[in-house]
Automatic annotation (TrEMBL):
<keyword id="KW-0813">Transport</keyword>
<keyword id="KW-1133">Transmembrane helix</keyword>
<comment type="similarity">
    <text>Belongs to the mitochondrial carrier (TC 2.A.29) family.</text>
</comment>
<keyword id="KW-0812">Transmembrane</keyword>
<dbReference type="InterPro" id="IPR023395">
    <property type="entry name" value="MCP_dom_sf"/>
</dbReference>
<dbReference type="Pfam" id="PF00153">
    <property type="entry name" value="Mito_carr"/>
</dbReference>
<feature type="repeat" description="Solcar">
    <location>
        <begin position="81"/>
        <end position="165"/>
    </location>
</feature>
<feature type="repeat" description="Solcar">
    <location>
        <begin position="178"/>
        <end position="262"/>
    </location>
</feature>
<dbReference type="InterPro" id="IPR044677">
    <property type="entry name" value="SLC25A3/Pic2/Mir1-like"/>
</dbReference>
<keyword id="KW-0677">Repeat</keyword>
<feature type="repeat" description="Solcar">
    <location>
        <begin position="279"/>
        <end position="358"/>
    </location>
</feature>
<protein>
    <submittedName>
        <fullName>G3031 protein</fullName>
    </submittedName>
</protein>
<keyword id="KW-0496">Mitochondrion</keyword>
<keyword id="KW-0999">Mitochondrion inner membrane</keyword>
<keyword id="KW-0472">Membrane</keyword>
<dbReference type="InterPro" id="IPR018108">
    <property type="entry name" value="MCP_transmembrane"/>
</dbReference>
Length: 373
């Protein structure tokens, strides 16, 4: 060993120097180990299970774990969360769509109030743009947004509630046999309450849109309306509003539900459960548009009454009928309203069902009932 040490230069082989180097390296490693031990280490569940398999579980007791992603809570049908989701879907559905078609609504209302001046759809848009600019076409959008958001909440949220309540009262057999009656009863009940929330905002909207110089919008229109006609005047049009909206909504929901069933039975080449969500939403829009055309026809006479009553403080239902005549009551402004309501209703059902899909609920409309054998 001594002979070997003589062959190696002393600068490379020195026991004292080697010991000092080894001690320094060992101390540095120990210090790094202590720092690593003090720092928290995150393990996934898979890693922790593997560690337990190799006997390291005791070392993991004080170490934090990365939790697995929480599973998205599913909304139970006909629960409180279900009705809350349907109510919010109704707010988005009606509030957004009615606000979007405000220009059509402005022209329609003016054609109903002053047919001598606004003789056609084209002239109605032309005159409105010439007299009020682009701002004239969106007059009354704020009361429209607020009023129809409130109405949409009641219309859709309460419809789902009343439909289920009446079906439970009738029992499974009668509910299946008379499902259209349940659609009609549920929608009529829902709209009765929804219109109470809509009425004040509809009164201000029509006044702002049809009376030149009355107000620029909701901020000055609501106080001026109350000053002139009182709070009770905001609800003067509730009866014709019910006359317009309740038949409209009964047709909207009953026609939609039955059209959905007919489309899946006769048009769509596969059952609803086999359709993608996109295909189901396409059916919702198509059924909604078809329902909207019938809605416009059924509710149009009352729509003329509402416009006339809200634009003229002294007007009554009988005076409006005498002034317009029955033919004009049913037909004045109808083509534009068919376009407006058809598009509106189709979009409403599309938005409403899209929101339901977004929160994890099925689209509206059931499979067709089984045929009698």
């Amino acid at each position: 060993m001594a002979a070997l040490s003589q062959l190696i230069p002393a600068g490379l082989y020195s026991p004292d120097r080697f010991s000092a180097t080894l001690l320094s390296a060992t101390s540095g490693f120990a210090a790094q180990t202590e720092r690593d031990a003090a720092a928290p280490t995150a393990f996934s569940l898979a890693e922790s299970s593997l560690a337990q398999k190799f006997g390291m579980s005791s070392q993991l007791n004080n170490m934090p774990f990365i939790p697995a992603p929480a599973e998205k809570k599913r909304i139970k049908l006909y629960s409180r969360d279900f009705y809350a989701a349907c109510t919010l879907g109704g707010v988005l559905s009606c509030g957004l769509t009615h606000t979007a078609v405000t220009p059509l609504d402005v022209v329609k209302c003016n054609m109903q109030i002053d047919p001598q001046k606004y003789k056609s759809i084209a002239s109605g848009f032309s005159i409105t743009l010439r007299e009020g600019g682009m701002g004239g076409l969106v007059k009354g959008w704020v009361p429209t947004l607020i009023g129809y958001s409130i109405q949409g909440a009641g219309k859709f949220g309460l419809y789902e509630y009343f439909k289920k309540t009446y079906a439970d009262m009738a029992g499974p057999e009668l509910a299946a046999k008379y499902q259209t009656v349940l659609f009609l009863a549920g929608s009529a009940s829902a709209e009765f309450f929804a219109d109470i929330g809509l009425c004040p905002w509809e009164a201000v909207k029509v006044k702002v849109q049809t009376v030149p110089g009355f107000a620029s919008g909701l901020r000055d229109g609501m106080p001026k309306f109350i000053q002139q006609e009182g709070v009770a005047g905001l609800f003067k049009g509730i009866t014709p509003l019910w006359g317009r909206q309740i038949p409209y909504t009964m047709m909207k929901f009953a026609c939609f539900e039955n059209t959905v069933q007919a489309l899946y039975k006769y048009v769509v080449p596969k059952p609803k459960v086999e359709c993608s969500k996109t295909e189901q939403l396409g059916v919702s829009f198509a059924a909604g548009y078809i329902a909207g055309v019938f809605c416009a026809i059924v509710s149009h006479p009352a729509d003329n009454l509402v416009s006339k009553l809200n634009s003229n403080k002294s007007a009554t239902i009988s005076s409006v009928v005498n002034e317009m005549g029955w033919t004009a009551l049913f037909t004045r402004g109808l083509p534009l309203r068919i376009v407006m309501i058809g598009t509106l209703t189709g979009l409403q059902w599309g938005i409403y069902d899209a929101f339901k899909v977004y929160v994890g609920l099925p689209t509206t409309g059931s499979a067709p009932p089984p045929e009698d054998k």
